[in-house]
Design brief:
Blueprint lengths: L4 H14 L2 H13 L5 H12 L4 H26 L10 H32 L6 H8 L2 H28 L6 H30 L1 H4 L2
Helix pairs in contact: 1-4, 1-7, 2-8, 4-5, 5-7, 7-8
């Protein structure tokens, strides 16, 4: 089985979804959450990340290339999948479907976000609190970002559940049920972090509730 290319690709796809992609997503959410303490706090955190040693090496080989592989194979996997929620409306069946839907939407969201921030920065724009506040001042863009970050967080959390099953960490039905509660708890916690950050750019009072 180990010599089967599809087996290898699925294992690697699952692994890269956890290490390092999930670390990157979590780190990104944490940096954005500094916005809840004000513009200066966010700008300092963003500048710290922008001035890390070997930044471009880390971004290319630790983030972008693994993310690209995970995204390309994930698209192939998503369109090969055959959801059966019409016949069996169990939670895990819906989670299976949502994993594919959120994966596609997250890819679209990330591509747009990179265009609005990193590409804009390469063209001379300053990526700071004011930039994000200006982007999110548009109601349609605010809704797009809310759906985008929630999709990314769900895809990450549910992906952790799939990873544990795929790699033999949770084998028994009981362990998988417990893992469902754990990963959905991660989804809720990271969603709170993400939404507080978004609202900090639009309305600091909402972020501090």
């Amino acid at each position: 089985m180990a010599g089967n290319p599809e087996f290898f690709n699925r294992k690697l796809h699952s692994l890269l979804g956890v290490i390092p992609v999930s670390v990157f997503v979590t780190q990104h959410l944490v940096v954005n959450h500094f916005a809840t303490n004000g513009a200066e706090s966010f700008n300092n955190a963003a500048n710290f990340m922008a001035n890390l040693p070997f930044r471009y090496f880390l971004e290319i080989f630790i983030i972008f290339l693994p993310l690209l592989y995970h995204a390309v194979y994930g698209l192939y996997y998503a369109f090969q999948a055959k959801p059966n929620t019409n016949r069996f409306g169990y939670f895990r069946n819906w989670a299976f479907l949502l994993q594919r839907v959120t994966g596609v939407f997250t890819l679209i969201f990330l591509a747009w976000h990179v265009w609005q921030t990193r590409i804009a920065a390469a063209m001379g724009a300053t990526v700071d609190f004011n930039m994000m506040a200006e982007i999110l001042a548009n109601g349609g863009m605010l809704a797009f970002y809310i759906i985008g970050v929630l999709s990314a967080v769900f895809h990450l959390a549910n992906g952790l559940w799939s990873f544990c099953v795929s790699w033999g960490i949770t084998i028994t039905p009981r362990s998988q049920k417990i893992n469902t509660y754990v990963t959905m708890g991660i989804f809720v916690l990271l969603s709170i972090v993400a939404l507080r950050a978004i609202f900090a750019f639009t309305n600091p009072e909402l972020a501090n509730m």
